[in-house]
Amino acid sequence: MTDAIEEYILSHIDDEGDLLRNLNRDAHVNLLRPRMLSGHLQGRLLKMFCRMVQPKRILEIGTYTGYATLCLAEGADDDAEIHTLEVNDELEDFIMKHLHKSKLEDKIHLHVGDALDIIPTLNGVFDLVFIDANKRHYCQYYDLIFDKVKSGGLIIADNTLWDGKVLEIPHHTDKQTIGIQEFNDKIAKDDRVEKVILPIRDGLTLIWKK
């Protein structure tokens, strides 16, 4: 997608609002990898998915700045709850600073720690899961959450085109690319779900549990 096309798209969709715009700016000034942030287009898409699915319980694996978290919260009903997992405890202050500025804060429950340890402790069923964490562990995340997703639930996985590296033969030390390739292959073969990859930003896979 060219810069001109992206600008055209952004000028013809809903505004992200001051809170998310300021969060984005804060991330670019103060964080090392601001590109990891979901951003305006993907954020509006996540909100729209919530409008359509109307999930009551959402699980986000990989909070980072909380940008996507807030977008999910915007689209979810008032009585919905969002559990978001972040492994980097140094990001907690940044995340909470912006959550505290939002009227949606009460919907959101931040869990700090390794998702592989936290997910087994979460009880109940989720209607929507957003995976955007360590690419090495995507297959493990999927296996851990699958039985916790209701039939008819939606799983969304980010970065599944991985800058086009999915088309390459990765070096054996490139565990992130290998992890994404293995995940994509696993989903393609899983007949328990319907799936489609959207070529938006770095690839977004929609997985619907039958």
Automatic annotation (TrEMBL):
The keyword Transferase applies. GO terms for molecular function: O-methyltransferase activity; S-adenosylmethionine-dependent methyltransferase activity. It comes from Dysgonomonas macrotermitis. GO terms for biological process: methylation. PANTHER family: CAFFEOYL-COA O-METHYLTRANSFERASE 3-RELATED (PTHR10509:SF14), O-METHYLTRANSFERASE-RELATED (PTHR10509). Keywords: Methyltransferase, S-adenosyl-L-methionine, Transferase. The lineage of its organism: Bacteria, Pseudomonadati, Bacteroidota, Bacteroidia, Bacteroidales. This is Predicted O-methyltransferase YrrM.
